[in-house]
Amino acid sequence: MSPDASPKADAQTYLTFARDVTDPLPLHVIEAGALETWLQAQPDAVRTWVTASGFEAALGASLLVPGEAGAPVMALAGYGTTDARARGRFHLAAVAAALPEGTYRLEGMDADRAEEEALGWLLAGYSFGRYRTQSGAKARLVSPEGVDAARIEAVAAGEILTRDLINTPANDMGPDALEGACADLAERFDAKMEVTRGEDLRAQNLPLIHAVGRAAAQAPRLIDMHWGNTGPTLTLVGKGVCFDTGGLNLKHGSSMGLMKKDMGGAATVLGLAQMIMALELPLRLRVLIPAVENSVSADAMRPGDILTARNGKTVEINNTDAEGRLVLADALTLGAEGEPGLMVSMATLTGAARVAVGPDLAPYYADDAALAAAIESGAARAADPVWRMPFHAPYEAMIEPGIADLDNAPSGGFAGSITAALFLRRFAGGTRYAHFDIYGWNPSAAPARPKGGVGMGARALLAALPEALDL
User: Which UniProt keywords apply (predicted)?
Assistant: First the structure.
């Protein structure tokens, strides 16, 4: 039996704000240039202690200040300079990780940064403890004045769901388990869910999902979840390739090592869906997840095969390792048939996107300028950086092989993320559409973001929805 996947109650405590605390320790947030002014207003004993400790209010630095009895009476958090802060985010998360267990109240925090820092503080409490006992920061925070504590907690919980799903290896997060995670989410929020599996995919005209996943031990499937009865319609489509060997175009071992994260699009979509439902946004939500493994067997699709998609377009398979766009194609066609007000796909789709922008930015594609503006604005407010990429029409010819309508893996190596996005757009049916080509993985630890699975673009989208859908 695999280790218990359920969240541990004590660990989850640190993902919420402290409540009903009578005497939290004040935590003074001090910029480097303001330290002298702050010290001048303090008693001699405090000035002496801080000076002797060498505290200079550098970004992420922390210091406990004792009282006469020796117990701490306050804590200090360095907030550095404007230039230093511009090179990162969630700066107080580093302070949360350094402080001892206890409950703290922010003092001197700018209101316009309080929401970001409060979210980062909660996320600093995350650890992935399914297979080994681990813990995140144990310093708890009283919700800062002026922020929506319930919203921040809902966002943190959605991000944690995404991280847990990505971090879980494929032996415990195959298509069956991913379906189970969707079912748990649907049950918690009274959503409806239907699943089409195995040979029924062909019967229901979802042939590309079937072709990609038919070689695996667990049957391929299309998960379709609905929530909400009124308001504009939003359809989220997440790539759920639970493991990607590359198929007959087998990946090298070094490239296969992180392929448990190839369902990062599905995980991010589910995290965003949880945020939306927990916040009871006034919209109608649909979540489509093609859940498959791209494996090798006698039944695997082959290079050179020509497949017919749900919308009737033929696709030449020039690389079986370009499978994500195939499963998304059928799901997008199905989503477009529902005529949503907005459809968004999220996928760990191309290495080209990482080469272009690195692991910290979420590249996205959108034809609608107003939608792009809403996403950019939402990203800035949510500390969830994105970068707009072009649906560059002159490259359409690169995905047209001649023998079929489309090529799933154009030769030449140019513009790999753009050609993948153009491929997907062919299946969006003219729907108002955005596509995120995310990485879903933090390669090295950063404040509020330990090494491992991470959500990208979800918070930006959440913040953009009121404007994008006129909520």
Answer: Aminopeptidase, Hydrolase, Manganese, Protease
